[in-house]
Write a structure and sequence with these properties.
The protein folds into two domains: about 70 residues, no CATH class; about 110 residues, Endonuclease III, domain 1 (Orthogonal Bundle), CATH 1.10.340. It contains eleven helices and no strands. The radius of gyration is 18 Å and the shape is globular. It starts with a helix and ends in a 23-residue tail after the last helix.
Length: about 240
């Protein structure tokens, strides 16, 4: 059985560089493609505006696809509402209308105002200091996946995301009948890899790409780059 890092390299060879987290506001600018994905790894520190957009996207992507989030982000950008001040000044009703494509727009609008205010709008909050994971989890509307997405992609802090793609992928490779709990699978990846935010982010993005092509709820095993060592009971 390959190591966790070996599997990262296998996925990287199969799918290439993913360039997450996509920044809608940077589409087509130098270093980004037409959808805002990075063309190559960059060590340039994120601007506050980037952190706000990523945190916004992490909330909007709850229970929906990224294509729907792109529509919502497009609406927010067109109205000039991708800053902490603009989100705070906008009424809940206006936010609901703008983010409607992302689904669950009523509760997401309230979450968005609350989370962005706490991270970027409160007195003394500069949007640069990395928040504690436990603090994020204490904020209404932020669960483990959203917290880790904000930490990893908005703050470049190495906190692995054990979303459903990741947990399903791990369970099948390990031959487990049940999908593992979030914190357990997260710890397996973090204990098996160098503690590097760039690696964590790219690995997570590769697992999502693999999940969409091969390892969804109904696996497509033909052509899977992990087929030879996958232990899924229903393999094939």
């Amino acid at each position: 059985m390959p190591t966790v890092f070996d599997i990262y390299e296998i996925l990287s060879d199969a799918y290439g560089y993913q360039g997450w987290w996509p920044l809608f506001s940077r589409r087509g600018s130098p270093g980004f493609n037409s959808r805002g994905y990075r063309l190559f790894p960059s060590r340039i520190p994120l601007a506050i505006e980037d952190r706000i957009e990523i945190s916004t996207g992490a909330i909007l992507t709850q229970n929906t696809s990224w294509k729907n989030v792109e529509k919502a982000l497009g609406n927010l950008q067109a109205d000039g509402i991708l800053s902490a001040e603009a989100i705070a000044d906008s009424s809940v009703e206006k936010l609901e209308a703008l983010i409607r494509p992302s689904g669950y727009f009523r509760q997401k609008a309230r979450r968005l105002k609350g989370v962005i205010h706490i991270l970027f709008g409160k007195p003394g909050s500069n949007g640069i200091d990395v928040p504690e994971r436990d603090f994020l989890l204490s904020v209404s509307g932020i669960g483990p996946e959203t917290a880790d997405s904000i930490l990893l992609y908005a703050y470049n802090y190495p906190s692995f995301i054990a979303d459903m793609y990741t947990r399903r992928f791990y369970a099948r490779l390990a031959g487990e009948q049940k999908i593992g709990k979030y914190e357990h699978v997260k710890s397996i990846f973090e204990n098996s890899l160098p503690r590097e935010a760039g690696l964590y982010g790219e690995y997570h993005a590769l697992i999502v790409a693999h999940g969409k092509k091969h390892c969804s709820s109904r696996p497509v095993c033909r052509g899977c780059p992990c087929f030879s060592f996958c232990r899924a009971p229903d393999k094939g």
